[in-house]
Amino acid sequence: MADLHAGRTVAVVLAAGKGTRMKTDLPKVLVEVRGRPLIAYVLDALRAAGVDHLYVVVGYRAEAVRAAFSGQPDVSFVEQTQQLGTGHAVMVCGEALAGHDGAVVVVTGDSPMLQSKSVACLVEDYWRDRPACVMGTVHKDDPAGLGRIVRDDEGRFQAIVEEKDATPDQRRITEVNMSTYVFDCRELFDALDHLKPNNVQGEYYITDCPQIMSRAGKLVQALAVLDPVEALSINTVDELGAVEAALREMDHR
Could you tell me which of 132, 137, 131 has the C-alpha nearest to residue 150? Predict the structure, then answer.
Protein backbone atom coordinates (compact mmCIF):
# COMPACT_ATOMS: atom_id res chain seq x y z
CA MET A 1 0.00 0.00 0.00
CA ALA A 2 1.30 3.47 -0.92
CA ASP A 3 2.49 5.70 1.90
CA LEU A 4 -0.15 8.38 2.33
CA HIS A 5 2.49 10.82 3.59
CA ALA A 6 4.95 10.41 0.72
CA GLY A 7 5.65 13.54 -1.28
CA ARG A 8 3.44 15.79 0.80
CA THR A 9 4.15 19.02 2.62
CA VAL A 10 3.08 19.17 6.25
CA ALA A 11 3.66 21.77 8.95
CA VAL A 12 4.54 21.71 12.62
CA VAL A 13 3.17 24.78 14.40
CA LEU A 14 4.70 25.51 17.81
CA ALA A 15 1.86 26.54 20.11
CA ALA A 16 2.74 25.30 23.60
CA GLY A 17 3.76 28.53 25.31
CA LYS A 18 2.15 30.84 27.86
CA GLY A 19 1.13 34.43 27.24
CA THR A 20 2.77 35.72 30.41
CA ARG A 21 4.17 38.96 29.00
CA MET A 22 0.84 39.62 27.29
CA LYS A 23 -0.77 39.99 30.75
CA THR A 24 -3.16 37.10 30.15
CA ASP A 25 -3.56 33.53 31.35
CA LEU A 26 -4.41 32.43 27.81
CA PRO A 27 -1.94 30.36 25.78
CA LYS A 28 -0.05 32.96 23.78
CA VAL A 29 -1.36 31.68 20.44
CA LEU A 30 -4.95 32.37 21.54
CA VAL A 31 -4.29 36.04 22.27
CA GLU A 32 -6.45 37.90 19.73
CA VAL A 33 -5.57 40.53 17.19
CA ARG A 34 -8.45 42.06 15.25
CA GLY A 35 -10.84 39.57 16.81
CA ARG A 36 -8.95 36.40 15.80
CA PRO A 37 -6.37 34.27 17.66
CA LEU A 38 -2.77 34.81 16.55
CA ILE A 39 -2.47 31.19 15.43
CA ALA A 40 -5.49 31.49 13.10
CA TYR A 41 -3.46 33.80 10.84
CA VAL A 42 -0.57 31.31 10.84
CA LEU A 43 -2.79 28.36 9.89
CA ASP A 44 -4.40 30.39 7.10
CA ALA A 45 -1.00 31.37 5.67
CA LEU A 46 0.20 27.75 5.70
CA ARG A 47 -2.96 26.55 3.95
CA ALA A 48 -2.66 29.28 1.32
CA ALA A 49 0.94 28.16 0.71
CA GLY A 50 -0.30 24.65 -0.13
CA VAL A 51 0.55 22.82 3.10
CA ASP A 52 -1.45 19.57 3.26
CA HIS A 53 -1.69 18.99 7.01
CA LEU A 54 -1.05 21.02 10.16
CA TYR A 55 0.35 19.48 13.35
CA VAL A 56 -0.16 21.91 16.22
CA VAL A 57 2.08 21.30 19.24
CA VAL A 58 0.12 22.21 22.38
CA GLY A 59 1.27 22.42 26.00
CA TYR A 60 0.12 25.17 28.33
CA ARG A 61 -3.70 24.99 28.59
CA ALA A 62 -3.69 22.51 25.71
CA GLU A 63 -7.43 21.92 25.99
CA ALA A 64 -8.17 25.58 25.15
CA VAL A 65 -6.15 25.41 21.90
CA ARG A 66 -7.72 22.06 20.97
CA ALA A 67 -11.20 23.45 21.59
CA ALA A 68 -10.55 26.47 19.36
CA PHE A 69 -9.50 24.40 16.32
CA SER A 70 -10.81 20.88 16.90
CA GLY A 71 -13.38 21.09 14.11
CA GLN A 72 -10.77 21.56 11.38
CA PRO A 73 -10.05 18.32 9.48
CA ASP A 74 -6.53 19.34 8.38
CA VAL A 75 -5.40 20.02 11.97
CA SER A 76 -3.98 17.42 14.37
CA PHE A 77 -2.72 18.10 17.89
CA VAL A 78 0.46 16.79 19.51
CA GLU A 79 0.99 17.43 23.22
CA GLN A 80 4.29 18.60 24.68
CA THR A 81 3.77 17.77 28.35
CA GLN A 82 7.06 19.38 29.39
CA GLN A 83 8.19 22.59 27.69
CA LEU A 84 11.83 21.78 27.00
CA GLY A 85 12.41 24.09 24.06
CA THR A 86 11.52 24.42 20.38
CA GLY A 87 13.61 21.40 19.36
CA HIS A 88 11.85 19.27 21.93
CA ALA A 89 8.48 20.52 20.64
CA VAL A 90 9.34 19.07 17.23
CA MET A 91 10.74 15.87 18.77
CA VAL A 92 7.33 15.08 20.28
CA CYS A 93 5.93 14.97 16.71
CA GLY A 94 8.15 11.96 15.93
CA GLU A 95 5.35 9.42 16.10
CA ALA A 96 2.92 11.57 14.11
CA LEU A 97 5.49 12.08 11.35
CA ALA A 98 7.00 8.58 11.39
CA GLY A 99 5.65 7.74 7.94
CA HIS A 100 6.30 11.13 6.35
CA ASP A 101 8.77 11.42 3.49
CA GLY A 102 8.79 14.99 2.33
CA ALA A 103 8.77 18.58 3.49
CA VAL A 104 8.07 19.71 7.06
CA VAL A 105 7.45 23.41 7.52
CA VAL A 106 8.25 24.51 11.09
CA VAL A 107 6.88 27.85 12.31
CA THR A 108 5.74 29.45 15.54
CA GLY A 109 2.04 29.82 16.23
CA ASP A 110 2.39 33.39 17.52
CA SER A 111 3.57 34.91 14.20
CA PRO A 112 0.41 36.33 12.60
CA MET A 113 2.39 38.30 10.01
CA LEU A 114 3.61 35.07 8.38
CA GLN A 115 3.02 35.49 4.63
CA SER A 116 1.82 32.62 2.46
CA LYS A 117 4.01 33.75 -0.44
CA SER A 118 7.13 33.44 1.73
CA VAL A 119 6.22 29.91 2.85
CA ALA A 120 5.36 28.93 -0.74
CA CYS A 121 8.74 30.22 -1.93
CA LEU A 122 10.60 28.14 0.67
CA VAL A 123 8.51 25.03 -0.06
CA GLU A 124 9.13 25.45 -3.80
CA ASP A 125 12.87 25.71 -3.14
CA TYR A 126 12.73 22.54 -1.04
CA TRP A 127 11.01 20.48 -3.74
CA ARG A 128 13.37 21.83 -6.41
CA ASP A 129 16.72 21.37 -4.62
CA ARG A 130 15.79 18.91 -1.82
CA PRO A 131 18.07 20.49 0.80
CA ALA A 132 18.12 19.13 4.34
CA CYS A 133 16.82 22.54 5.39
CA VAL A 134 15.85 25.83 3.79
CA MET A 135 15.07 28.74 6.11
CA GLY A 136 13.58 32.14 5.47
CA THR A 137 15.57 35.14 6.65
CA VAL A 138 15.18 38.92 6.52
CA HIS A 139 17.57 41.86 6.69
CA LYS A 140 16.74 44.26 9.53
CA ASP A 141 18.21 47.71 10.08
CA ASP A 142 18.00 47.01 13.80
CA PRO A 143 18.64 43.28 14.34
CA ALA A 144 18.88 43.60 18.15
CA GLY A 145 17.72 40.55 20.04
CA LEU A 146 17.55 38.26 17.02
CA GLY A 147 19.70 35.33 15.90
CA ARG A 148 22.19 36.31 13.19
CA ILE A 149 22.74 34.26 10.02
CA VAL A 150 26.47 33.54 9.73
CA ARG A 151 27.79 32.68 6.26
CA ASP A 152 31.19 31.63 4.94
CA ASP A 153 33.25 33.61 2.42
CA GLU A 154 31.27 32.06 -0.44
CA GLY A 155 27.98 33.08 1.13
CA ARG A 156 27.00 29.58 2.25
CA PHE A 157 25.10 29.12 5.49
CA GLN A 158 27.21 28.24 8.52
CA ALA A 159 25.14 28.86 11.65
CA ILE A 160 22.46 30.79 13.47
CA VAL A 161 24.16 32.64 16.32
CA GLU A 162 21.97 34.08 19.07
CA GLU A 163 22.80 37.65 20.03
CA LYS A 164 23.99 36.74 23.53
CA ASP A 165 26.55 34.34 21.98
CA ALA A 166 27.59 36.60 19.09
CA THR A 167 30.97 38.25 18.68
CA PRO A 168 31.06 42.02 18.01
CA ASP A 169 31.50 41.29 14.27
CA GLN A 170 28.58 38.89 14.25
CA ARG A 171 26.37 41.44 15.99
CA ARG A 172 26.88 43.74 13.02
CA ILE A 173 25.23 41.17 10.72
CA THR A 174 21.78 42.42 9.66
CA GLU A 175 20.45 39.12 8.24
CA VAL A 176 18.40 37.43 10.94
CA ASN A 177 16.56 34.20 11.60
CA MET A 178 12.76 34.46 11.83
CA SER A 179 11.98 30.85 12.83
CA THR A 180 10.51 29.95 9.44
CA TYR A 181 11.94 26.65 8.20
CA VAL A 182 11.29 23.89 5.69
CA PHE A 183 13.07 20.66 6.60
CA ASP A 184 13.40 17.32 4.91
CA CYS A 185 11.55 15.14 7.41
CA ARG A 186 14.13 12.36 7.67
CA GLU A 187 17.04 14.79 7.88
CA LEU A 188 15.17 16.77 10.54
CA PHE A 189 14.72 13.83 12.89
CA ASP A 190 18.30 12.71 12.30
CA ALA A 191 19.47 16.17 13.39
CA LEU A 192 17.11 16.14 16.37
CA ASP A 193 18.76 12.90 17.49
CA HIS A 194 22.04 14.86 17.72
CA LEU A 195 20.55 17.88 19.48
CA LYS A 196 22.00 18.68 22.91
CA PRO A 197 20.61 21.05 25.57
CA ASN A 198 23.89 23.00 25.73
CA ASN A 199 22.48 26.20 27.15
CA VAL A 200 21.66 27.80 30.49
CA GLN A 201 17.98 26.83 30.20
CA GLY A 202 18.80 23.16 29.53
CA GLU A 203 16.48 23.23 26.51
CA TYR A 204 16.61 21.76 23.02
CA TYR A 205 16.57 24.46 20.32
CA ILE A 206 15.41 23.91 16.74
CA THR A 207 17.83 26.70 15.75
CA ASP A 208 20.74 24.27 16.32
CA CYS A 209 19.47 21.80 13.71
CA PRO A 210 20.58 23.68 10.56
CA GLN A 211 24.16 23.90 11.89
CA ILE A 212 24.15 20.19 12.81
CA MET A 213 23.06 19.43 9.25
CA SER A 214 25.60 21.77 7.68
CA ARG A 215 28.48 20.31 9.71
CA ALA A 216 27.41 16.84 8.55
CA GLY A 217 27.84 17.97 4.95
CA LYS A 218 24.12 18.31 4.23
CA LEU A 219 22.79 21.11 2.06
CA VAL A 220 21.35 23.96 4.14
CA GLN A 221 20.04 27.11 2.48
CA ALA A 222 19.17 30.45 4.04
CA LEU A 223 17.09 32.60 1.71
CA ALA A 224 16.37 36.26 2.44
CA VAL A 225 12.85 36.01 1.02
CA LEU A 226 10.76 37.08 4.00
CA ASP A 227 8.79 40.30 3.88
CA PRO A 228 10.04 42.89 6.43
CA VAL A 229 6.55 42.85 7.97
CA GLU A 230 7.20 39.22 9.01
CA ALA A 231 9.84 40.51 11.41
CA LEU A 232 7.11 42.03 13.60
CA SER A 233 7.03 39.96 16.78
CA ILE A 234 4.48 39.89 19.56
CA ASN A 235 5.86 39.70 23.07
CA THR A 236 4.11 42.65 24.69
CA VAL A 237 0.76 44.43 24.53
CA ASP A 238 2.44 47.35 22.69
CA GLU A 239 3.78 45.01 20.01
CA LEU A 240 0.28 43.58 19.61
CA GLY A 241 -0.86 47.11 18.71
CA ALA A 242 1.89 47.41 16.08
CA VAL A 243 0.82 44.14 14.47
CA GLU A 244 -2.82 45.25 14.48
CA ALA A 245 -1.82 48.43 12.64
CA ALA A 246 0.22 46.44 10.11
CA LEU A 247 -2.69 44.08 9.41
CA ARG A 248 -4.99 47.05 8.93
CA GLU A 249 -2.52 48.61 6.46
CA MET A 250 -2.29 45.36 4.49
CA ASP A 251 -6.09 45.34 4.13
CA HIS A 252 -5.85 48.64 2.26
CA ARG A 253 -3.11 47.64 -0.15
Answer: 137
